[in-house]
Write a structure and sequence with these properties.
Blueprint: E1 7-13, H1 18-28, E2 35-37, E3 40-45, H2 47-56, E4 60-71, H3 75-83, E5 96-104, H4 111-124, E6 137-145, E7 148-154, H5 178-185, E8 193-196, H6 203-213, H7 233-246, E9 255-259, H8 262-275, E10 281-285, E11 299-303, H9 316-328, E12 333-339, H10 342-346, E13 350-359, E14 362-370
Parallel strand pairs: 5-6, 8-9, 8-11, 9-10, 11-12
Antiparallel strand pairs: 1-3, 1-4, 2-3, 4-7, 6-7, 12-14, 13-14
Helix pairs in contact: 2-7, 3-4
Length: 391
């Protein structure tokens, strides 16, 4: 397709992250007129817009290109109208086909039958569908709403949260697209010093380093649109070169990532090395009660401690109290905690703000904490040596 072809795009957001994704895309591609809708953000733009969003988004799960919308009351009508859409702009040879189907308030509600009709329609349209694992994958998504079916093609390929650096984790990790959203919602600024005192696989620290360095998440990825007949390699390379040219080589302030478990810290170190930011992180194997943070006028402690659901850790109140204690002995630092229970966050101090999100199927809140003496009213449930291990 010509580079000037106007495309209707849909960037998918994880549940509850639509406002964050809208803010990101309104800054990244304002001329694409992004609009927040349930499930993500719609945009309009040319190939440059499509490439730029895939290259730079830290929050989207996938970027879809709308192929068309049809109204159908019968399966054969759906097959016939789907076959008439312009599929050739996404296929230049034999492809493996994957169809994902959903339907709400439609006469045609059976998702398996919907996927079967789409596959038949693409065969009717002349596409060569093969089972060869070496063939490009064409991922078609069909969504029905009140008998209207929107058909889209995935331009991203592998899910965008899979950055490639986190090949191992310490249990209950943050998704890579959630970490930048937490930094945004917590109000993290480039001038601040960041600390994650329960860093686990170091996802928060690594994503923060990439943001501060101005490193595009999609630089080393292979995207599905590379296999489309209208792919413009020179346009893509120009955007990649532009991204590399503006990348910084150092951070204005350190990022402290710590954990009391030496095996977890080694895992975090390997992830940071794969992500290319090991030199930018101050990794420490230390108990939170012994952790000392750099002196600063403005800093942020941000962490994803055990919730008591996915990791069956005892004595959680004592752990959350230790986070509040860390903030109180670290002048200039704010504190934000991601957890499932408001009461746990209150053990760290007074809640000044909260945002409810989803993480791994769980409803979680990001709680901003104001330093207080509230911990005096909480019973000491564990000695320092008995606190749950950091992640």
């Amino acid at each position: 397709m010509p580079s000037s072809t106007q495309l209707e795009l849909f960037a998918i957001a994880a549940p509850s992250l639509e406002p964050c994704l809208f803010h990101e895309l309104a800054t990244l591609v304002p001329s694409a007129n992004p609009v927040q809708v349930p499930g993500g953000v719609t945009l309009r733009g040319d190939l440059s817009t499509l490439y730029r969003v895939n290259l730079w988004t830290r929050l989207a799960t996938r970027v879809l290109v709308r192929v068309g919308t049809v109204t159908a009351l019968h399966f054969e009508e759906l097959r016939r109208k789907t076959a008439a859409l312009r599929w050739s702009q996404f296929v230049q040879g034999p492809v493996r086909l994957k169809v994902s189907a959903t339907a709400h308030r439609c006469r045609l509600i059976h998702t398996g039958a919907l996927a079967e009709r789409v596959e038949g329609a693409l065969a009717d349209a002349g596409l060569s569908l093969v089972a060869d694992e070496g063939a490009p994958l064409l991922h078609v998504l069909i969504r029905g709403e009140s008998d209207r079916f929107t058909l889209s093609v995935d331009s991203s390929g592998e899910l965008l949260h899979r950055r490639g650096y986190r090949q191992e984790d310490g249990g209950a990790p943050l998704r890579e697209t959630l970490a930048p959203a937490l930094l945004m919602l917590a109000g993290f600024q480039p001038t601040q010093t960041l600390c994650d005192p329960m860093c686990g696989s170091a996802t928060l620290a690594i994503e923060a380093a990439h943001i501060l360095l101005g490193r595009a998440p999609g630089l080393s990825r292979r995207f599905a649109f590379f296999d489309w007949p209208g792919h413009q390699p020179m346009l893509w390379q120009a955007l990649v070169d532009e991204a590399r040219a503006q990348e910084k080589t150092s951070l204005p302030n350190p990022i402290v990532a710590s954990d009391r478990d030496p095996d977890v810290i080694e895992l975090a170190r390997r992830n940071a090395e794969r992500a290319g930011v090991l030199a930018q992180l101050d990794l420490r194997c230390i108990d939170i009660q012994k952790l000392t943070l750099p002196k600063t006028q403005s800093g942020l402690i941000l962490c994803n401690p055990p919730y008591g659901k996915r990791l069956k850790e005892p004595r959680l109140v004592g752990l959350y109290r230790s986070l509040g204690m860390l903030q109180r002995r670290s002048p200039g630092f704010g504190l934000a905690i991601l957890t499932t229970q408001r009461q746990l966050a209150q053990a760290a101090g007074t809640i000044s703000d909260e945002h409810w999100l989803r993480n791994g199927g769980l409803r979680v809140g990001l709680f901003s904490i104001t330093s207080s003496q509230r911990d005096k009213h909480w019973p000491i449930t564990a000695a320092a040596s008995e606190l749950p291990s950091n992640r």
